């Protein structure tokens, strides 16, 4: 068998459309998981035992259930009780909730790593706890958590390929359709491998650049 990429030419617009759909879903899911993770991390580290326990249950639950099971529950299970959500929205919600569980762990670690002396100084200066959390705790926690958050986000991008199982023609779903139409799965999936590798590599580079920018004062001091 000869390796022939020319067979892709007629299908490039369709594949590009799938890639754009993947990008849209991932951007929304990254934002959603960051928001959810931040709230859950705040609850886990809060002084309220009840809120902390609820947050821990959420994290343990969604970290220990396969993503595809969560996805099928939202897409195929909820309609049985009258809740209908389109495939794209379902994918974004499922990715956000699953990613939020892992993101919360990273942010929680960032919060716990903050020097208690900084918080004590802020309290002595008369700042309220909400102000301290918003203006001191979260900026420091997010800055120190950039690299591990990057790993979570890369994994979320890779996990988005599973959205093809709920009829969403994102990049992987589009590639499956093209492979079945052309009967040339080797070329199609070889290109898909390269596409995901390039995408995650670019995201890793961006995360590294963001980490260096946010921690530039520490680098200069060293």
Automatic annotation (TrEMBL):
Annotated localization: Cell inner membrane; Cell membrane
Keywords associated with the record: Amino-acid transport, Cell membrane, Membrane, Transmembrane, Transmembrane helix, Transport
ABC transmembrane type-1 domain residues: 19-207
Record-linked Gene3D superfamilies: MetI-like
TM ranges: 20-44, 56-75, 81-102, 148-168, 188-210
Gene Ontology CC annotations of this record: ATP-binding cassette (ABC) transporter complex
Main location: membrane
Membrane topology label: Multi-pass membrane protein
Statement: the UniProt record of this protein carries the keyword Metal-binding: no
UniProt GO MF annotations: transmembrane transporter activity
BP GO annotations: amino acid transport
Function, as annotated: Part of the binding-protein-dependent transport system for glutamine; probably responsible for the translocation of the substrate across the membrane.
Family: Belongs to the binding-protein-dependent transport system permease family. HisMQ subfamily.
Name the record gives this protein: Amino acid ABC transporter permease
Taxonomic placement: Bacteria, Pseudomonadati, Pseudomonadota, Alphaproteobacteria, Hyphomicrobiales
């Amino acid at each position: 068998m000869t390796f022939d990429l020319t067979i892709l030419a007629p299908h490039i617009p369709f594949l590009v459309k799938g890639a754009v759909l993947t990008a849209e879903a991932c951007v929304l899911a990254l934002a959603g998981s960051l928001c959810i993770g931040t709230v859950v991390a705040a609850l886990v580290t809060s002084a309220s035992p009840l809120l902390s326990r609820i947050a821990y249950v959420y994290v343990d639950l969604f970290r220990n259930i396969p993503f595809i099971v969560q996805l099928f529950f939202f897409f195929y299970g909820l309609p049985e009780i009258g809740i209908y959500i389109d495939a794209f929205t379902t994918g974004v919600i499922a990715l956000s909730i699953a990613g939020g569980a892992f993101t919360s762990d990273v942010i929680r670690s960032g919060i716990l790593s903050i020097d208690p002396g900084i918080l004590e100084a802020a309290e002595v200066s008369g700042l309220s706890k909400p102000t301290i959390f918003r203006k001191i705790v979260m900026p420091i926690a997010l800055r120190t958590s950039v690299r591990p958050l990057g790993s979570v986000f890369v994994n979320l991008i890779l996990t988005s390929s599973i959205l093809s199982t709920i009829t969403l023609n994102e990049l992987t779903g589009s590639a499956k359709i093209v492979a079945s139409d052309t009967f040339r799965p080797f070329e199609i999936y070889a290109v898909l491998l390269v596409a995901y590798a390039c995408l995650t590599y670019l995201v890793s580079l961006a995360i590294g650049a963001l980490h260096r920018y946010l921690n530039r004062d520490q680098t200069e001091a060293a």
